[in-house]
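Known limitations

Structure tokens in this collection are predictions and should be treated as such. Users comparing against experimental data should check residue numbering before alignment. To illustrate the layout, the record for Polyunsaturated fatty acid 5-lipoxygenase is reproduced below. The input appears on top and the generated tokens appear beneath it.
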Amino acid sequence: MPSYTVTVATGSQWFAGTDDYIYLSLVGSAGCSEKHLLDKPFYNDFERGAVDSYDVTVDEELGDIQLIKIEKRKYWLHDDWYLKYITLKTPCGDYIEFPCYRWISGEGEIVLRDGRAKLACDDQIHILKQHRRKELETRQKLYRWMEWNPGFPLSIDAKCHRDLPRDIQFDSEKGVDFVLNYSKAMENLFINRFMHMFQSSWNDFADFEKIFVKISNTISERVMNHWQEDVMFGYQFLNGCNPVLIQRCRKLPEKLPVTTEMVECSLERQLTLEQEVEQGNIFIVDFELLDGIDANKTDPCTLQFLAAPICLLYKNLANKIVPIAIQLSQVPGDENPIFLPSDAKYDWLLAKIWVRSSDFHVHQTITHLLCTHLVSEVFGIAMYRQLPAVHPIFKLLVAHVRFTIAINTKAREQLICEYGLFDKANATGGGGHVQMVQKAMQNLTYSSLCFPEAIKARGMDSTEDIPYYFYRDDGLLVWEAIKTFTAEVVDIYYESDQVVEEDLELQDFVNDVYMYGMRGRKASGFPKSIKTKKKLSEYLTVVIFTASAQHAAVNFGQYDWCSWIPNAPPTMRAPPPTTKGVVTIEQIVDTLPDRGRSCWHLGAVWALSQFQDNELFLGMYPEEHFIEKPVKEAMARFRKNLDAIVSVIAERNKKKKLPYYYLSPDRIPNSVAI
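Generated tokens:
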């Protein structure tokens, strides 16, 4: 009688093992086996991290094995089991790999195909077509779209983390409990004694050091020491944690009536302001998005304020970007003066602080939340709904949506919900952040996620004109490495553009993103379908880059740049000044966040800047969804390219007082998971 050797690998994460009964059935081209109990006498099967082998003898020849069925039946108490993979040694000595990397919950069952990636057109056998269809039907019932707030990208239909499908939950929910993590961060930073001191102002700038100096960090210490300097202020628009807003000014906006006479002491080339604009030396950051957004009113004891400033910057002869004019609201007028470096010291400083606070709000809610977290969740949900596990694009992308839906669900549960943690310290809490996302969605485009296009659209692409824009330089290197890799994978599975166009599962995935993620908004520029291999490679690059590199660039520098509270105030407790010559240091300190809000802010930026335990970085694919040699070779080349980028960045940073490392591939997690 034919005998098979079955090797079963159990996951190594916490609670991955099971004591339940595990049964195996084989489905072949010539017949199906009976159900076999996988059990060894006097042995604890399926322990966490175990790889167990079993001999399975069948009554008759089964032909080519097409599917294997795993059933889990209760032994004592219900537990979940994480099955990594099964390897089958056939009677003639061949090995067949069946990747799984899924949880089997309760009295569940799972049907697996062998690990070769297949497009729908490759499946000619009825049972395989049926398996493919059933998998998607099941997934579409599990992964449902939901509108969390009007105008938002649609998200997963789950009220809390435990409502999610088991396969996309965190291994341990405690590890991503925002309340717990923020409180723990404040404890680790020795600042928890201040956390309830709302309405209590600090005495002066030096007083902020009480909650700052407990953790030594090169960049954050440098920010503390130099935050008042114009060069440091300008540098952050290039290489801080929100390096996506600055753009070259092609024409001075009418709403900012700045003149050469106002800024001539800042211009170093003996040119008029208009001539400097023509030569490409003037840059602008416009916080128009914040205009009309409601400030946080959740605490009746503390009034909080927002502004929508416009900041004009200048590239000086040293090629440094420095601010030369700031207007704190969008409509010019007598009560909306243009602040200048030549003004009184504290007038100019407070104007810059308002810009930094506005930058913090746009960074947190748009650059970070909307453009990485929510967009990546859309890609993830669409992938699970429309691509079966055997599809090569599923195998490629699954590592890049790992825990993304879970972290966003947790955020909606604890962080950005009504009365959530976001309301505690942020002036855009209490609903302002929701208004911001609704407003920003009207301008979110596909091209804004294509890194080289986004850089070019802002006029920031010239390395000669703007030599110190490391976010751009490193981002382009990583983008090209990802694009080369995705192009290789596409070439392996798609012979021609026609095969791309006829891949209905792929087209459904792309259409789901457009219809539900972008709400069918034509102006978004998101494709409804993809017709060429080149466009498919670009689309996949967008998905992977957004989830990995872009998120890393705007997330992991938050403690570096935002821990010194005056450099990134999460709220302001007095309205923007309407006249010049009246600002004092006492007024500035009373405007900045109180002790309690400062502590919650610091706990947040510390917690958000930490990598996950057992973080998987770009190029790491420990789950072997792909089994084919050509793809594994492409992955090896991808890692080699990434390693070369790590070396280039490390070499440059050796000479820098302010190193830029957020886009070094060894610091870029594979997915949005924090």
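For this record: The CA atoms of residues 420 and 544 lie 30 Å apart. The first helix runs from residue 126 to 142. Please report discrepancies through the issue tracker.
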